[in-house]
Amino acid sequence: MFQKIIHKRDHTRASQKQFWLRVGVGIALVFLIALTSWFTFGRQKGSSGTSSSAPVSAGSEFQDPLTGVRVDQIHANQQVYGVMIDENRDARPQSGIDQAFLVIEAPVEAGIPRLLAFFSEDQSVDKIGPVRSARPYFIDWALEFDALYTHVGGSNEALEKIKNGATFDLNEFWNGPQFWRATDRYAPHNTYTSTELLHAYVEKKQTSGRTTRPLYGVWKFKTVASESVFPQRLSVRYVVPDYVFSWVYSVADKVYVRMEEDQPIKTKEGNEIHADNIAIVITDVEVIDAIGRRSIRTTGEGDAYVFQDGKKIQAVWKKPAASERLRFFTKEGNEIEMNPGKTWIEVIEDDSQLIVQP
């Protein structure tokens, strides 16, 4: 009898061991399945095939949709601010343009260029300007981001286009609190704003239900850095001699440095202006009145050049409609991948305005 009791106790202990062993194996299996599912979902989420969440090969997992720079978290459909910046000799040095992720430079009256500098809502830029007036073709470039188009007045044609179009508009004439006038500059070269003031205006409009989150296409960006080739200098002639700007490629720093004559151009804060890509858009430019205002074709397609890593790429620019992104393609029809970082686009009417030197 005693032996039977011992045998029964041993059998019970064995059964318990088998039971807990099965439980342990089951828990481990569930944990393994959950871990695998989490990893798989995370990878799929990061590579969903959408242009705003492209994975990169190393480091931070994602690329910022606007700059292609590696980030730990995607900030899709950020609000973009497009600010008209004065390029007149009396307006220099400017503030904030070194921090813009994209700048488009195009001529206005007398062929003097003006800038449209783009910033995103996650940037903090304390001083941007001097802010100047609107022109119709700059509105088309702002529309492709659903950007807050920021300016001080404008030509009659530009103001009429804003009035009758879909532009998310911020005119200093009616929204003074979003701007200030500097005391060390003379009008009209003394109006400034900041990303903080622009963000406050957007929040106000969102709260009142008068605006929604923007929608826009994004460029293709490289996921692997290209090798630098050799130093390169390209010059763009808007009006001789005061408005000839050069970009000199630094192999050591892997950036193009904006120059005037042989000196780097600096902001009022003392910062050099760098770009990772320089694109040249060649398009139709026509003088339309006695003041010298221009009409510039922004849609359709035309010849272009893209400069990256000390290399010149013959290209084609395409912008199917005002609300579509301006993109660059090879002659074979493949979209050109941009270097992550900052891009400057120079708009000219023919090749004679561009000089390229090794």
From TrEMBL:
Domain of life: Bacteria
Annotated DUF3048 domain residues: 66-207, 236-345
Keyword Flavoprotein: no
Protein name: DUF3048 domain-containing protein
Transmembrane segments annotated in the record for this chain: 20-41
SUPFAM superfamilies, per database record: YerB-like (SSF159774)
Gene3D superfamilies the UniProt entry points to: YerB-like
Keywords: Membrane, Transmembrane, Transmembrane helix
Signal peptide range: none
